Amino acid sequence: RALVVAVDEAVSAGSHSIMLSGGARVFSAGLDVPYLMSLGDDRDALREAWEAFFAAARALANCPVPVAVAMEGHSPAGGCVLALCCDYRIMAEGPYRIGLNETQVGLVAPEGIQSLMARMVGPHRAERLLVAGEMVDSSEALRIGLVDELTGIDDVATRARVWLEGLLQLPRMPMLRTRAIARAAVVDCLRDERIELARFVAGWMEPDTQAALRAMLARIGK
Predict the structure, then answer these.
(1) How far is CA 111 from CA 59, 116, 144, 168, 196, in A?
(2) Could you give the dihedral angle defined by the CA atoms of residues 148, 153, 154 and 155, in that order, rounded to the nearest 10 degrees?
């Protein structure tokens, strides 16, 4: 919710571009699974939490000015989704991984989210990554087009700013209109009909999904 407000306030204040950044070594691990598991069988609360996440994704996808994401570390699951909604992805070089690992914890990535991945890496490669829930390291992510640029961990935010500043040297209205046309598919991927949140929440409650999530929490000691 804070991210939605921040994007809106930046645009309202006249910002011509936005840089999204997260934590060092972990850009974003996605949603807080221990919190979600603490909600138990409260489907309304679960739906509310997931609605907030997808609202954040839509805020980035619908943003009328360019958004560069500076990933100074790992970006699994929801972190990867947020990155896929941005215009340009810069990631730290090194042993950092990115991807949609939903199947490994018993979840099914919604069709629209799968399409976001396919838009970046192509349908065949996306199928392989999604079905296996595979995370790739930063060098492989660059090779397959999942990220646009790699740099040292201390320079990620600087490079994101440099890319945005270069874009802002172009004639403003033609650039923004061209961008809106080019990114219409990103917005379309996040339509309610392509997320099917009710089905996603129902899947969250499936016994094998709950078992996989509990096993994951046990592995990470939470």
Answers:
(1) 19, 9, 21, 33, 8
(2) -10
**Whose CA is closest to 50, among 88, 86, 84, 1?**
1
pLDDT, one tens digit per residue, over 161-194 is 999 999 999 999 999 999 999 999 999 999 999 9
The percentage of the chain sitting over the pLDDT mark of 70, rounded to a whole number, equals 100
In order of 91, 101, 140, the CA distances from 74 in angstroms are 9, 12, 13
Strand ranges of the sheet holding 97-99, from the earlier edge strand across to the other edge? 25-26, 73-76, 97-99, 136-137
Distance CA 180, CA 172 (A): 12
Task: Report the first-to-last Cα separation within the chain, whole angstroms.
Answer: 25
Task: Give the pTM.
Answer: 0.95
**What residues contact 23, with CB distance under 8 A and at least 6 apart?**
72, 73
